[in-house]
Amino acid sequence: VELTALAIMQDAPVIPVIVLNKVEHAVPMAEALVAGGIRVLEVTLRTPQGLDCIAAIAKSVPEAIVGAGTVRNAADAWAAQAAGARFAVSPGYTQALGQACRDLRLPLLPGVATSSEIMAAQADGFNELKFFPAMQAGGPAMLKAWQGPFGDLRFCPTGGISPANAADFLSLKNVVCVGGSWLVPTHALEHGDWAHITALAREAVALRG
Ligand code: 3PG
Description:
CATH superfamily: Aldolase class I
Strand content: 15-25%
Bound molecules: 3-phosphoglyceric acid
Enzyme class: lyase
Strand order of the largest sheet: 3-2-1-9
EC number: 4.1.2.14
Structural class: alpha/beta
CATH class: Alpha Beta
Organism: Comamonas guangdongensis
InterPro entries: Aldlse_KDPG_KHG, Aldolase_TIM, KDPG/KHG_AS_1, KDPG/KHG_AS_2
Largest sheet: 4 strands, parallel
Number of strands: 9
Number of domains: 1
Subunit structure: Homotrimer.
């Protein structure tokens, strides 16, 4: 079965945005999230260890659906898929990136923050989009405004979202899920506090009432 961007967004109310500096954190971190009910994991390419972390999770945590975040160009997309990523998330959108992901059959969640960016991504066939950076670029009010002209599009807002404001986004009809880094705090990684990550995942799953 081919994975779609929509299926990835529908799996849980929150896609964790994960930044890892140590490959040995990847597998226990992924197992902790899966234990809490979160299996779609976005491991960002913003650290040099990102690709190796994706590979480790793809190999050792079969229950997880691991993807790459911070995918900015075609080379990132190729490298992500080669490492085992099953989807890609980008902070913005370019035609070159869209074409590369289509060629690779790698589901892409492209980032947008303006109406023109939405139109560019939609023209290339992308109807599920990441709204980034969500709080900084207009928050829930922006998504409400987009319901008029872009009622056929669905969003994963990311950036500045926390348990305190996630419900404001998840209650919108054009929001399928949200993204956020709060599920994998640096201190939990550094102290091996996997139980804390599992607890945060459980809370995130419960956000969809
Ligand atoms: C991202 O990197 O995609 C977002 O910046 C994550 O945002 P957050 O750290 O505010 O959750």
